Amino acid sequence: MLTLLPQLGIGVADFAAALLFLYGLHRMASPVTAPSGIYLAGIGMAVAVLASFLYAFLVEAAARPYLPTNLALAIIALGIGAGIAWWAGRTVAMTAMPQMVAIYNGLGGGAAAAIAAVELFGVPMQSTAVLGMTLLGAMIGAVSLSGSLIAWAKLDGVIKQPVRIKGQQVVNGVLLLIVIALGVGVVVGLGAGVGASTGSGTHAVDNIMSRSNLIDLFFLSALALGILMTLPIGGADMPVVISIFNAFTGLAVGIEGYVLQNPALMIAGMVVGAAGMLLTLLMAKAMNRSVSNVVFSNFGAQAKHKQGKIQGSLKPVQAGDAGIAMRYAASVIIVPGYGLAVSQGQGKLYEFVKLLQAGGVSVKFAVHPVAGRMPGQMDVLLAEAGVPYDMIFQLEDINDEFVNTDIALVIGANDVVNPAARTDKNSAIFGMPILNADRAKHVYVIKRGEGKGYAGIVNGLFYGDNCSMVYGDAQAVLIKMIEAVRGLGLPAVA
Prior knowledge:
The chain has helices spanning 4-27, 34-63, 71-91, 97-121, 128-155, 168-197, 202-230, 238-260, 263-286, 291-296, 319-327, 338-343, 346-358, 377-384, 395-398, 420-423, 474-486; strands at residues 331-336, 362-367, 392-394, 407-411, 442-447, 467-471. The protein is of the alpha/beta class. Strands 3-2-1-4-5-6 form a six-stranded parallel β-sheet. Helix 16 links the parallel strand 4 (407-411) and strand 5. Helix 5 runs parallel beside helix 7 and helix 5 (128-155) runs antiparallel to helix 8 (238-260).
């Protein structure tokens, strides 16, 4: 009876962790309850980690003595990891959030692959089916690890351009077949060699060495596949790539949870995998592209087609003039982009918005699904500044309002407001749903220069008769707008 108590306690802890994961995710569905949802899910993770410690040192150590356990090293590793995560979470800039998400997601995939490695090197396996599932989780986790690291390097500027080789897709296909073949070899080798490995003499040693070499090659090939899959993908697709690897990590964790018969891992992995895949599909739809097109095309590289001549001219204006024009407008829609995040101007933006509202101007925010470098980055940016949630609208909810809006203010966005997506069949972004900022009565664009967006094409909106350019860092420009509007003698803002 006493021997069953640890297993019972671990089972209860796993169940409690799973419930906290699910309830926390449920609360994340609303921006109002999302913070508490994150805390609840974090508590669930702490419970799951504690249960894992109990399982490893009370149950697993007795059941499988061939697996080495060291409580001191485990606690040290946990302490180091928690310390790094706490420091990084406290100090990371909003513009670096996508990189942090990418690398942490990759570490999750790596953890799943590491679990699989322990299972593969520690015999005996329960069955061929479990062995196959272990290898599948190992492959997906390894691909997620190396691919996410490349995504991090691209987002952080370590890798500045997509890296492509001739016949890249063929090479990737061949490498995938090699990974599968090595996996089959491991299944055959372990399935036939488990008993032999427990024998004596040179044959047993050779069998173990052969099995170990196959597993090593399997992991190296899977890691290489993740690298080669991600290197050719352009910067414009990084939000979708992060989401794809997030789904991969969840799937790998869920599979390894099944291998270990750990319900917390299974539930957490399935939830993350399903959410990641759903987000990937939604983002691909928002770009009017398929997931396979994201992974296997060269989108995001410099556009190679000959773009038609842009009609019109760029019309620079002073920041103060633009601010005053918005003060006397009846309605303003603001389109935030990555340039706002780079300048850390969200606080000044909301200060400016409150000035406009004090003057009776109707102000709304329009957020494109793939604005920025990570799903939801603009929503988080605005929430950080204290913008009320009921002022923030998604593309499908606000797009029809631009035509009746006096002024659209675009801050650091480019491709998501480029009308070429509607009109130019040769454009790299043709067919992608965009925010209809160009249909507002007038458009002001805050931009640091005349650079192109991720898709590498010139934005015709900037040359439109109804568009004026306000050049400069977004935060500096917004400060000048605030000063200009305050100079009009508006009532103080509460």
